[in-house]
């Protein structure tokens, strides 16, 4: 929903803080996730993640969440799915070239990043999406990566 | 005046120290000359002669020719096809690659193929959306964006590997370029976005059409402040320019071509003229003069769609090449002439008359 999406960008700073805490919590619970089994958790967590992030950000479950680097504006909502900033076709009113009624996802990302403490992360070059991760949970990936899990096998890539 | 080390068609020049490509564009830019590039209108045809004919229009006026890649999401001869035909007779080409139509497997293969065919420059583009073209029903691919394409191309060249990590035996020696549009929102992000492109591997930039010199100046100041115009990894900026055919066409472009910013003052100036086409060219020449004087600008990229013949006049009149005549097939050796050039035709016509 576009209205909620806009709300998320307006509250990028608060969400950023929440997200950092949440990521740390996920990482701390790594032993629990391991005991339950990352692969067993994948489907239910992905469903919850889709519901929450779908509502807040119109999340497309790319499996490679970069929201905290992009001003809490999900780049997968860009019709060209650009991951590194706006194309050259942004309209003078800041709207999208492809969908004239929609504000450019990256104009929003820039505004959101200005509100964030670590907004300069928008300047980092993002790697291309690994399409094999489509539909997988970014939360579990973050939990695994932050806790330096040595065994990356549970999720099929 | 000639530029040193001109090519023998079909053979690569040696790569100079500090250069990444054997191409002439990189040489001209690194030597600090004001470079001029243009773009060829690719034919809706499989006729090779048509490509050579369209390139010959620019003989002696440009340092490299962009082969567009389905520009405006319209179908034309492919950029690899155009580049291959042009490099065969020695033209310096810039291969445009848009992320709209191919995935990373196709694009990496194409970079190798184009480099093997003698293309020394690759311009990495996002590409217009399919809605802008003649096949709006097509599937937009956008597997990569221009930034990740740059990074992948750079790794292919400098680290001899595909994105998968698999090794490349002989890397593509290409000078990497990207586009930037300093004239559309978010304006204050645009210089930083350029910095990001440079970090991803861009070595030259061709901008969108510039009709707003103040915005261009501001942009260049900020680009300079970010330190992007210094050092071995510096970027060369070529400003996009082109003649407008009339006030009406300017309005149409403004409303229908994504990303082109034309201030009202420009349209008023055209409207006030009795010969709007002439005035469009004059405006382009005025802008070219002004652009040349902006500190840090390395050249101009002339996009004269359907007015390709005016490129020669614009370059000639403004004298931006300062007497330099960029190499073209036949400049030094008539035997190497582009068979479709006017000169070649004139000579042929002459010999036929002689024989009869």
For the terminal residues of chain B, how far apart are their CA atoms?
38 Å
Give the biggest sheet of chain B: 8 strands, parallel, barrel
Task: Record the strand order, biggest sheet of chain B.
Answer: 1-2-3-4-5-6-7-8
Radius of gyration of chain A: 16 Å
Query: Residue-averaged pLDDT of chain B, rounded?
Result: 93
Largest sheet of chain A: none
Q: Could you say which structural class the secondary elements and strand pairing of chain B correspond to?
A: alpha/beta
- What is the CATH topology assignment of chain B? TIM Barrel
Structural class of chain A: mainly alpha
Largest interface pair: A-B, 29 and 38 residues
Count of individual domains of chain B: 1
Unreliably modeled segments of chain B: 350-356
CATH class of chain B: Alpha Beta
- The level of helicity of chain B is 25-40%
Order of helices and strands of chain B: HEHEHEHEHEHEHEHHHEHH
Q: What's the total count of β strands of chain B?
A: 8
Element order of chain A: H for helix, E for strand:
HHHHHH
The average pLDDT of chain A is 91
Using brief descriptors, characterize the structure shown.
heterodimer; A: 157 residues; mainly alpha; 6 helices; globular; disordered C terminus; B: 356 residues; alpha/beta; TIM Barrel; eight-stranded parallel β-barrel; 38% helix
Task: Give your account of this protein's structure.
- The complex is a heterodimer of chains A (157) and B (356).
- Chain A has helices at 2-10, 12-28, 30-36, 38-57, 105-115, 138-146.
- Chain A is mostly helical.
- Chain A has one domain (2-146).
- Chain A starts with a helix and ends in an 11-residue tail after the last helix.
- Chain B is globular and about 60 Å long.
- In chain B, α4 packs across α5, α6 packs across α7 and α8 runs antiparallel to α9.
- With 356 residues, chain B is of the alpha/beta class.
- Chain B has helices spanning 24-30, 48-56, 79-88, 104-116, 146-158, 190-200, 213-225, 247-256, 264-271, 276-292, 310-318, 342-355; strands at 35-40, 64-67, 93-98, 121-125, 175-180, 204-209, 236-241, 297-302.
- The two termini of chain B are 38 Å apart.
- Chains A and B meet through α5 of A and α5 and α6 of B.
